[in-house]
Every structure is written in C-alpha cells, then in structure tokens.
Write a structure and sequence with these properties.
By secondary structure, the chain is an all-alpha fold. Helix content is 82%, strand content 0%. The chain is globular and about 50 Å long. The relative contact order is 0.18. This is Probable magnesium transporter. It is a multi-pass membrane protein. Belongs to the NIPA (TC 2.A.7) family.
Amino acid sequence: MFGVVGCILCVVGSVGIVLHAPKEREINSVGEIWHFATQPGFIVYSCVAVVGALFLIFWAVKRSGHRKMLVYIAICSLMGSLTVISVKAVAIALKLSFSESNQFIYVQTWFFIFVVIICCLVQLNYLNKALDSFNTAVVSPVYYVMFTILTILANMIMYKDWVSQSATQIATQLCGFVT
C-alpha cells in the first residue's frame, strides 16, 4: 500500500512541477553555459554538492552506508545534478558543432566532458552499492525523487529560472516538491 501511495505522490508532484516549469532558455554556445556556470550562486551550489558528496563518501559511507540507504542515494543525487548540467552543455556543443561551429575547440567543452565522466562514474558506483545493499523497490523511488529535486534546484540556481516566474508558478512548483 505504501508503495502505491508513494508512486502516486511521485507522479502528482512531478506533474505539478512540470506544468508550472519555466520556459527553457535558448542557449547558443558553450560559452553562454559557461557564463551561467561561473556565476557565484552556481559556484556555491557546485562546491556544496561536491563537498557534501566527498563528506558522504569519506565519512558517512564508512560509518553507516551499509545501514542507511540515503547515504548512497545522496551521493548519486548530488553528483547527478551536476551531471545533468554538464550533459546539457556537451549536448549543445555537439548540436552546434554539427550545425555551424566547432565547440570542441574551447576548453570549457572539455571541462564539461570531464565533469560528465567523473560524475557518471561516481553515480554508477554508489547507485550499484545502493542496489546491492537495499531493496530496488525502495531505492528507485527515493533516488528518483532526490535526483529530480536536486537537478531542478541546480537548474534553478544556474539559470535563475525563478526570475521569470510568477508567484503562483513558484508556489505550485514548491507544492510539487513537497508532494
């Protein structure tokens, strides 16, 4: 019964978030994403995510990782939020390189590729540990919710999405997060 209610709440919360999500910005270069990624707010978020993940990896995993699923899931979700940002940058670089201008001549593109590789490796490692140690029926929904929340938070911080939203849209998104 809890699984069914949990799944329904995940769907209802996700629909609330998606229905009131801001329109996506048109990005025309990797340099433009680099500009957003080097803003103070996102640098602080990135540092908190990396330091938080390192703390969990080097301290919490040894103490309680085998007993508390959230340790592994938090590592995956924190790294996942940075992965999504970087994958978007790499995808834009590929799209632009195939259509008009080579984006792989810029150091920023290679930095984003490096971040994708490192974050994906960390995610896969700790997601596998979570799935090996705990029931998949519990790991999957918790990971889905935490990953989604942190990814949306990272995007909101990086692109400052709340600036273009009305109070109603922000309130509805917050209700979706709570749900």
